[in-house]
Specification:
The structure is a single chain. The chain is α/β, with parallel strands linked by helices. It has nine helices and seven strands. The strands form two sheets. The protein has a five-stranded parallel beta sheet, sandwiched between helices. Strands 2-3 form a two-stranded antiparallel ribbon. The chain starts with 6 loop residues before the first strand and ends in a 5-residue tail after the last strand.
Length: 182
């Protein structure tokens, strides 16, 4: 099924590797972080990504400060990334691999280096690369321009239909859920 593509865009967390972050608890901490640092309150059960996006829209010049929460959180889990061995076998048979992740670029690169996988990827784009997380398609515009990717030859492989799947749909890419790849 995947052999008809020449270019593969992968998500990172829960696709290439899993990072065992308890996002439900981190959501509470992020609410405190937003209130303390931006005097902004969130009353509902938005994800950390969704709250970051709201802050990015409200405070577009404070991108680095908004991602400070992740900059402290994600490195704590570096040695705890768990490799998805099923997808690793697929990586070994492809050459044109890219990552578009809603994790920080350094988190993804560090995880790939930890498992000696970085050389399998031509480009790693984290959420901080363009400050535009999936399902935003800014990363696709970059990949298309600099790596000459086309919609017909590229597939998005991820775990979350609301981020990875919608990203693919917004571009017109095929989408494969990593849990369904055998």
């Amino acid at each position: 099924m995947l052999i008809k593509y020449t270019d593969y865009i992968f998500d990172y967390d829960n696709t290439i590797c899993s990072i065992p972050i308890d996002w439900k608890t981190q959501r509470l901490y992020f609410k405190e972080f937003a209130k303390e640092n931006f005097h902004f309150s969130f009353d509902n059960e938005l994800t950390v990504e969704q709250m970051e996006n709201i802050l990015l829209m409200k405070f577009p010049l404070l991108k680095e400060q908004i991602y400070q929460f992740r900059s402290v959180l994600e490195p704590k889990y570096l040695n705890k990334h768990l490799l998805n061995k099923n997808i690793f076998s697929k990586l070994k048979s492809t050459n044109n691999n890219y990552i578009v992740s809603n994790n920080l670029t350094n988190t993804v690169i560090s995880g790939l280096e930890y498992f000696n996988l970085l050389h399998f990827f031509k480009k790693v784009i984290g959420v901080d690369f363009m400050y535009s997380p999936k399902p935003s398609t800014k990363s696709w515009l970059f990949l298309k321009e600099y790596y000459n990717l086309s919609v017909s030859s590229t597939v998005m492989i991820g775990d979350n239909p609301m981020t990875d799947g919608l990203y693919a749909s917004n571009i017109g890419l095929s989408y494969e859920n990593v849990q369904l790849i055998t």
